[in-house]
Amino acid sequence: MVDKNQQVIDKTLEQEYKYGFTTDIDQTKFDPGLNEEVITKLSKIKNEPKWLLEWRLKAFKNWKKMSEPTWAKIEYEPIDYQALSYYAAPKQKKNDSLDDVDPEILETYNKLGISLDEQKRLEGVAVDAVFDSVSIATTFKDELAKHGIIFCSFSEAVHDHPELIKKYLGSVIPATDNYFAALNSAVFSDGSFVYIPKGVRCPMELSTYFRINATNTGQFERTLIVADEGSYVSYLEGCTAPMRDENQLHAACVELVAHKDATIKYSTIQNWYSGDKEGKGGIYNFVTKRGTCLGDNSKISWTQVETGSAITWKYPSVIMQGDNSVGEFYSVAVTKNKQQADTGTKMIHMGKNTKSTIITKGISAGEGQNTYRGGVKILKNAENAQNFSQCDSILIGDKCGAHTFPYIDVKNPSAKMEHEATTSSIGEDQLFYCNQRGIKLDDAVSMIVNGFCKEVFEELPMEFAVEAKQLIEVTLENSVG
Amino acid sequence: MIKIKNLEASIDDKTILKGIDMEIPAGEVHVIMGRNGSGKSTLANVIAGNEAYEVDGGSISMNDTDITEMSIENRALEGIFLCFQYPVAIPGVGMAYFLRSALNAHRKHQGKDEMDALEFLNNAKAILSELGLDDSFLKRSINDGFSGGEKKKSEILQLLTINPKLAVLDETDSGLDVDALRTVAKGVNKFKNDNNSVLIITHYQRLLNYIKPDVVHLMIDGKIVESGDMSLVEKVEKDGYSWLEK
Predict the structure, then answer these.
(1) 3-class SS at A205?
(2) What domain range includes position A97?
C-alpha cells in the first residue's frame, strides 16, 4: 500500500503548473542593480511627491544596515539583490479604458480565468490587476465610488489621495520593521489601495490579482486597506507566475487598519510557481502582512491558502489595540516536491477583552517541509484576553516534514490561552475505507485533505472556497498518500 | 457469486489464512464463526483487497471474474462491500457528500447516470428513517464522534445505498444493544434478495436469531474445519470450539 501510494504521490507531483505560461509583450525594464539612483529613477517614473522618495531612501538606508533573517526553517541559495531588476512594466501605460490595455495582457488574464471586462466578471467582485510592477486595470471603480469607496492602484492613490497615503503608509509596518519590509519600502512599485468610509459595508468582494511575468525581476507590491469606523470589507488576493528556471523574488507588504467597529476580512490564494520536481526555479515569497485593530470592537481576519512558491515566509499578524477587538488567522499551507513553507501569525493583545483565534492546517507531500511559527503576546494592560490556537499537520508520504513552533508570551494573569496541535499521516485506514466504497485513490486523497482543511475553507468567500478546493485537488492529484 | 479457492494470506510475514475454500451462491447467507485470532477478520479484509495483507496462494473470484489481483476500489465496484468492524473517522468529510460520491462511483461503473442531489437525498432519508436515524445524520462528518451503534448503522446505511452484490459483515453485531442489533438485522434482511449474498462474521448466535443463515462455517487456525447448518451455531454456543481440535 505504502509503495503504491508513494507512486501515486510521485505521479501527482509531476502535475504541470497550469499557469506557467509567459506573455510576450513590449516592456520597460530597469537594468539589474539596486542603489539610490535606481530608487530615485523609480520614484520619478511614478511621478511621486518628494516626501515619498525620501521615505523610500530612508528605508533603503536602513535596509543596507540590516541583514537577511536566518531564523526561519528554510534553506535557499543566497539572493543576489544586485542581480535583480527592480522595475518592469508593459510599455503601454495604464488607461481608463480597457481598450488601451495591450490585448496580450488581457489575454493573459483571460487565460488565468480573470476577466477584466466588467460585463463578464462574476457579479460582486471588483478586481485590480497587477502585472509585474504596475497595475493594469481596476474594475468597478465607478460603481464603488458611488458608496465613497476608494479602490485603485497604489500609484494612483499616491496622486489622488495623498493625505490618506501619508497618514497610513508605514503606520502598521514601519519601513524599518524587518529586512524584507525595508526592501519593499524602498522599492515597492505598485499594489492596491482601499479605503472604506465610515459606516459603509462594501457591496462587493474586492480583489487584486498579482501576476509576475518578467524575468529576473522582483515583485514588490504594497497593499494598504483602511476601514473607517463601522465599515466592512472583504478582500482577496490571488497570485500566479510563469515557470522559469531561475528563482524570482516576491517581497510584498500588506497593511490593514481597522477603526472602531470596523471589520476587514483578507483572504489570499497564493499559487505562485513552486519550482520543478528537483526544486529548480519557483518564487521566493517573503511577505510581511500585518493589521492593526485600531479602534474598539474592530476585527481583522486573515485567511490564506498557500499552495505555491518555492519558499514561503509569511506571518500575517494582528495588533489588537482597541478594546474588544478580534484577530483571526486561518491558514492552509501545502508543500510538495522541494517546497518549503515557514508560515504562521503573530497575535498581539493590547486592549481589554481582546480575542484571537488561530487555526492552521499544514499539508506536506513529496519532500516538502512545512513549518508553523506563531506567536501570541498578551501585553500587561490586556485584561481578559483570550487566545485559541489549533495547529494541525498532515503528512503524505515519508519524505516530507511538519514542524510547529508556538511562542507564547503572557504579561497579564487574566489571560485565557488554549493551544492544540496534531500531526498525523494521511491514514492508510482512511484510504482503505474510501477505496472500499469504490472511491478512487486520488479522489479519496482530495476528499480527506479537503475535509482536513474544512474549517479554513469555510472562512473563504464562497466563490473562492470552490476555487481553493479545486486548487488543492489539482495540487495533490495523484499525490497520495 | 463468490468463489474462494485454497486461499492463503499473511501479514508481516505471519501466515494467517492457510487454505480457505468457500463458495457462496447468489441468494444465500453464510456465516463464519471462530475463536479470536482464527483469521475471520483477515478473510474479510483479504476479500476486500486490503493491501496490508499479502495473498500467498489461491484465488478469489466474483461471478467468474478473478479478482485476486484487483485493486480495492475495482473489487468494490465489482460488488464487494465490507461492513467494517471499526469504521474509521474522516473529519470534515460530510456523510452525504461521501455517500453520494461512493454511490455515483458505482453508478458510473455500471454505466448509469449519476444520481442527482435531490433523488439521492430522498433515497437516503427513506433509509435513515428505517434505521431510526435523524436526517441530520447526513450532515455529520463520516464516523466522527459517532457512538458505537451509530457507526454500525452508518455502515448499514451505506450498504443499502450502494446495494452491492456481496455484503461482508465483519463483527457488525459486536458492541450493539438489543435495539440496535434488531435495527442492523432489519437492514441486512432488507438488503438480501435472490441475486445477492451475505457473509456474516460473528462470535455470537444473537444476530443469527434475526438473520437466518443457509450455511455455517467454523474456522480454526486459518482453515474452515466444519460446515453445516444452524445446528453448528447451537453446538458452538454450548460447547465452544475445542471439540473441533484433533
Answers:
(1) strand
(2) 2-476
List the single best residue of B88, B109, B146 to mutate versus A (max A Cβ within 10 A).
B88
Q: What is the DSSP string of chain B?
A: -EEEEEEEEEETTEEEEEEEEEEE-TT-EEEEEE-TTSSHHHHHHHHHT-TTSEEEEEEEEETTEE-TT--HHHHHHTTEEEE-SSPPPEEEEEHHHHHHHHHHHHHHHTTPPPPPHHHHHHHHHHHHHHTT--GGGGGSEETTT--HHHHHHHHHHHHHHH--SEEEEESTTTT--HHHHHHHHHHHHHH--TT-EEEEEES-SGGGGTS--SEEEEEETTEEEEEESTHHHHHHHHH-SGGG--
Nearest to A436 among B52, B72, B93 (CB): B72
Contact A428 B162 (CB under 8 A): no
Query: Can you give the pLDDT at residue A115?
Result: 63
- A166 burial via Cβ count (<10 Å: 0-12, 13-18, 19+): middle
Task: Identify residue B33 by its one-letter amino acid code.
Answer: M
Whether residues B93 and A439 touch (CB distance < 8 A) is answered with: no
Q: CB-CB: which of A4, A433, A441 is closest to B87? A: A433
Count Cβ atoms within 10 A of the Cβ of residue A279 and give its class: 0-12 exposed, 13-18 middle, 19 or more buried: middle
pLDDT, mean of residues B202-230: 94
Tens of pLDDT, residues B106-158: 999 999 999 988 899 999 999 999 898 899 999 999 999 999 999 999 999 99
Q: How far is A469 from chain B (nearest CA, A)?
A: 13
The pLDDT tens digits of the residues spanning A262-287 come to 999 999 888 877 777 777 878 888 99
What structural domains does chain B harbor? 2-244 (3.40.50.300)
The separation between the first and the last C-alpha atoms of chain B, rounded to the nearest angstrom, is 32
pLDDT given at position A284: 87
Question: Cα torsion for A243, A244, A248, A250, to the nearest 10°?
Answer: -10
Q: Do B131 and B95 meet the contact criterion of CB atoms below 8 Å apart? A: no
CB contact under 8 A, A447 and B101: yes
pLDDT at residue B244, rounded to an integer: 84
Work out the average pLDDT over B55-71.
Answer: 95
What percent of chain B clears pLDDT 70, i.e. is strictly above it?
A: 100
Instruction: Tell me how many domains chain A contains.
Output: 1
State residue A2's pLDDT score: 41
Low-confidence ranges of chain A (pLDDT < 50): 1-6, 8-10, 12-14, 481
In a domain, A481, yes or no: no
Residue A13: the pLDDT is 45
Interface of B with A (CB under 8 A): 48-52, 71-73, 76-77, 81-82, 84, 87-88, 90-93, 97-98, 101-102, 105-106, 109, 141, 158, 162
Query: Higher pLDDT residue, A117 or B240?
Result: B240
Give the pLDDT confidence score for residue A28 in this predicted structure.
77
Question: How far A300 CA sits from the closest chain B CA (Å)?
Answer: 25
From CA A434, how far away is CA A5, in angstroms rounded? 14
Q: Which residues pair with A393 in a beta bridge?
A: A362, A423
